[in-house]
Design a protein that fits this description.
This protein is α/β, with parallel strands linked by helices. 39% of the residues lie in helices and 16% in strands.
């Protein structure tokens, strides 16, 4: 049978809600007040975020309405997974949190693949998710999901905003958490009726991200270990994927003659034709390349959490006790020393560490030049 008409009352009710919210917005609502959805758009813009990828849904109609008159670029996608992946790509290119908006239930589950990717690749992502109305929560309403349980194992932070006055503050916190330490995904669930509530006009909060810089003392300690090494290997990761980071990597590698191995998905952060290029630490690389790299007598891991892929199954370095001294530099102290015993752990911006290391000029031993040449020769042969 034709089921088309069965959906008409549901659509009509949602359209009525949207029209009511739009009318309230056009009339200006209560003096000195504005909708929570409009305040959220102001907060997004104040953070310098200018693009949202979405699949429109009835559970965040007020936000879509508020975006209609804004200069934020709303990219409408055909699937929530695609919207999430686009937001992750946008974050990679911009260096800021990517934004995606999806409807409740199936919309959120479709986007979960992008949330998992952002977690694995340390990419800042804010996922805005519609939620059932507040009076429906806990009653098993249509497409109701507890996002704390659903995303608990893969998101850095999960908030459901039930008080409209706290929406702007909570979004600012979400961006801060997504971009701080080890970047990653956060979830912001928004009950559909809350988005239509009016709020007063407090200042839009901006929470700057703290960046720790490496000290000269850190660099000198690293140089002390480096001076004893004939076969050092620098493993460079995604936290160096900025113009600043790439330049610092090149300068430090050249200053000290250190061969550079690149982690999975970040083959582009160091010139693959450079004499110090040692290869790519991705999936299923030839055993001969791993065997050569394992001969290193010092590993300097910079900008990577040293997961299973770049370490070739926790063999480069070997877990939990490496075969050689290990220097590990990463913005988040929680990632240092968790899997591998670390001789020198530095919780700091990776680029600042490499810049400090590059200022400590030292002669490059002949044996180190030979070692770098050997790794480069192996990498070139495999590339051919």
């Amino acid at each position: 049978p034709d089921r088309t008409n069965l959906h008409l009352p549901f659509v009509s009710a949602k359209q009525h809600f949207a029209n009511a919210m739009r009318s309230q917005h056009m009339m200006g609502g209560t003096s000195g007040m504005t909708r929570a959805a409009d305040r959220l758009v102001e907060t997004i813009r104040a953070h310098g975020l200018d693009r949202i990828f979405c699949v429109p849904g009835e559970s965040y109609l007020s936000l879509l309405d508020a975006l209609h008159d804004s200069d934020i670029d709303l990219v409408v996608c055909r699937h929530e997974g695609g919207a999430g992946f686009m937001a992750v790509a946008d974050a990679r290119l911009s260096g800021r949190a990517g934004l995606a908006a999806v409807s409740r239930g199936p919309g959120a589950t479709n986007a979960s693949i992008a949330v998992h990717l952002a977690n694995q690749d340390a990419v800042p992502l804010v996922l805005l998710v519609g939620q059932v109305a507040r009076f429906e929560r806990g009653r098993g309403a249509f497409q109701e999901v507890d996002y704390q349980q659903m995303f608990g194992g893969m998101a850095k932070g999960i908030w459901e905003v039930t008080e409209a006055e706290r929406l702007s503050e909570t979004f600012a916190r979400a961006v801060h958490v997504a971009e701080s330490g080890t970047p990653g995904p956060v979830i912001l669930a928004m009950p559909e009726d809350m988005l239509g509530d009016t709020v007063s006009d407090p200042a839009v909060p901006i929470l700057p991200v703290a960046r720790a810089s490496a000290s000269q003392d850190d660099a000198r300690k690293a140089e002390d270990l480096l001076a004893k090494a004939e076969r050092p290997l620098l493993i460079a990761g995604g936290q160096l994927d900025t113009a600043h980071g790439r330049a610092a990597l090149k300068k430090a590698a050249e200053t000290h003659g250190i061969p550079v191995g690149l982690t999975f998905k970040y083959q582009h952060i160091f010139d693959n034709s450079h004499p110090l290029y040692a290869g790519h630490l991705g999936f299923k690389i030839p055993p001969v390349q791993v065997k050569e790299m394992q001969k290193a007598d010092l590993i300097i891991a910079v900008g990577t959490r040293l997961g299973d892929t770049p370490t070739q199954g926790y063999r480069l370095p070997k877990a939990p006790i490496p075969d050689q001294p290990l220097i590990h530099v990463y913005p988040d102290a929680d990632a240092i020393g968790r899997v591998f015993r670390t001789d020198l752990g530095i919780a700091a911006d990776p680029a600042s560490f490499l810049e400090a290391l590059a200022t400590l000029n030292s002669s490059v031993p002949e044996k180190r030049k030979t070692w770098a040449g050997t790794l480069n020769t192996v990498a070139k042969k495999l590339a051919d």
